[in-house]
Inverse folding.
């Protein structure tokens, strides 16, 4: 897919906002940009933004950062990732006309006479990208300075994340007083996010022929206790700054054994702990493996000295901190009031991990606010009713212009 | 490995028995014959046996059957498989001279001044093949008629087994009153064998993003109960016809999950039940999944209606019946007496499944009697002290000549 055709993004200055937004969405949806293949779309975004004299455009890897420099007292960051999860017969995308059987029933019911954008990225998160491109092009004199971040590799392991790389290499590019990430929220505000850690819990045994099982030690049988502990664990609902975060502790993968007639000498249970923003990463890890287990990303297996998996081998696989909701910031209150007025929705806790947490680590309060239903992200039939574009753009223009 | 060089088996009629046996072993050990690649060795065995006018030689696939037709009252079958498990840096084989550090300590201790054959197949089961080739060539007037079976695909799934194919296509080729299978027993007699069944025990769940685990149902967590049942199961020691069979019930493989951030919708525990010859295959299956579950090889998943795994999905993967020890047959008593005299060993129960069970199904009592330590079968450092050849040949010549 690397030989993607040349992509051009253009905006007709004479077009009404609704038409301009839809045209921008069409253009970026048509660009195949599964993680690792964002390059051509990034190039097009960079060229597009470089055409506006009110923006300073910088690039690091496949991430583009464009900023106004109006000397305003405050600066708001608008960030969206350009990559998507892999396609599954849902590329190229297209508009579904009203009545199309591919339109999900709940969308057809609520938006009976609307076109629906269908295909990979239709919620996660090209609609928000399209709105941000529109704002970047048209908000030449906003009430706050603005920084737009279009980044790569959000849908894969945290260490590849383009926003993370910019935060590490050029933290000055993304300084600000508040950040909005365009992850899909159906134009509601979702504040903060749960943190997540993933790790293998490992049992060891002794291999033997299964006809002489007593000469070995069965590592899969030993994993019963790990699964029993998972079943005994009761996930908590944790209130933080007025929003409620629902935690979760789950085995997502399990593997063990070397052959059908061999007593297995190892079993690995891959566990994902999603924890509320009342806990630091270190506190969350301590609850799983004790405070001094010593297991870090890339340093192999260490025995849990406490916590849920005390006594078992632990190998860290991924970790990302939680973020407290940024709802006490003044701009957040203003944004929340606008969202309440246009959608009737109150701010909610974000459950999945998003780059909100990355801004939180940089000391920038951040929320998610994007078009499209978050439950459709990564689905085969990812789709979004067209009016979400105008709704999101309206809220942001009124908050920023 | 299919381009194996042309293999020739020859026997110097003037050589003493010890030298002749060692020479035969060298020749067949040098032939690479991992399952699927037995062909060239089978060809050589067929050519070798066809040179003796007292033998009628037949072939089916890569299995060679050679018989005497002396009109004796009774017929004894001698069977050995020609294939080996895959090589792991243990091919080509070689003789280790006394003092070689590759000789295992227990063998060096018991056979201090002996050469040791080292390499793939050195116990399982080319020594017995060599002895049988020697008997085939030299026993021109045995006291019973003899049928030699050299067969393929013993070390892989039961449906590929060459002896099974001959039993199905040409049962008349392998009729007899008693059978000796040359699986390694250190020249002791091992009677009968445990049966074995393998099946997947399956749990089902509902996939969801692990950030919203409550929207799914975790199939790996459900497998806890399966592992708990395995841990609660106490394997029995079962006496049958005076020999004791040790049973075993083990998970040998486990797998589940689709991604690190996805609540798993399926988990499979691959279980191996080794059961004593007091049970038929149907009885063994009933103990695991109930008598009327309906799970058969190749017919997909069925819910266990009883037994250890009642309530779970079962998919049958492999099954082989047990065999009662054939030690009440008159020839078996004679053979047992000779073994007792030469080795001091009493007949024992065979634990692993062997083709003894296949003869048992054909109504032919059968035992295992072969050279080499069964605990070294399939090991990287498979090896056998040279004197085992002469010990085995002596017992068989005195029993048969």
């Amino acid at each position: 897919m690397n030989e993607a055709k040349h992509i051009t993004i253009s905006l007709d200055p004479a077009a009404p906002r609704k038409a301009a937004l839809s045209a921008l969405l069409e253009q970026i949806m048509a660009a195949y940009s599964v993680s690792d293949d964002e390059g051509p779309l990034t190039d097009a975004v960079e060229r597009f933004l470089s055409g506006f004299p009110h923006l300073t455009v910088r690039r690091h890897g496949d991430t583009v950062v464009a900023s106004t420099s109006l000397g305003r007292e405050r600066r708001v960051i608008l960030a969206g990732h350009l990559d998507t999860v892999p396609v599954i017969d849902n590329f190229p995308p297209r508009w579904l006309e009203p009545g199309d059987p591919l339109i999900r029933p709940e969308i057809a019911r609520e938006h009976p006479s609307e076109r629906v954008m269908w295909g990979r990225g239709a919620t996660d998160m090209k609609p928000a990208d399209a709105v941000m491109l529109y704002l970047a092009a048209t908000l030449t004199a906003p009430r706050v300075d603005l920084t737009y971040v279009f980044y790569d590799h959000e849908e894969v392991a945290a260490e590849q994340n383009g926003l993370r790389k910019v935060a590490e290499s050029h933290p000055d590019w993304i300084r600000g007083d508040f950040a909005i990430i365009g992850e899909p929220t159906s134009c509601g505000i979702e504040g903060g996010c749960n943190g997540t850690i993933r790790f293998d819990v490992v049992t060891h045994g002794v291999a033997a022929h299964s006809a002489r099982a007593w000469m070995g030690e069965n590592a899969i049988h030993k994993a019963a206790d790990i699964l029993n502990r998972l079943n005994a664990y009761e996930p908590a609902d944790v209130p933080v700054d007025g929003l409620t975060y629902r935690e979760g502790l789950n085995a997502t993968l399990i593997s063990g054994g070397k052959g059908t007639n061999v007593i297995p000498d190892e079993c690995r249970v891959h566990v994902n702990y999603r924890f509320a923003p009342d806990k630091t990463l270190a506190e969350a890890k301590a609850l799983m493996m004790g405070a001094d287990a010593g297991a870090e990303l890339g340093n192999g297996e260490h025995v849990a000295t406490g916590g849920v998996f005390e006594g078992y081998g632990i190998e860290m696989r991924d970790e990302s901190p939680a973020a407290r909701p940024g709802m006490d910031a003044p701009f957040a209150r203003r944004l929340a009031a606008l969202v309440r007025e246009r959608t009737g929705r109150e701010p909610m806790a974000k459950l999945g991990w998003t780059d909100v947490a990355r801004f939180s680590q940089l000391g920038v309060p951040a929320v998610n606010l994007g078009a499209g239903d978050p439950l459709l992200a990564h689905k085969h039939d990812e789709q979004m009713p067209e009016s979400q574009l105008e709704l999101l753009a309206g809220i942001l223009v009124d908050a920023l212009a």
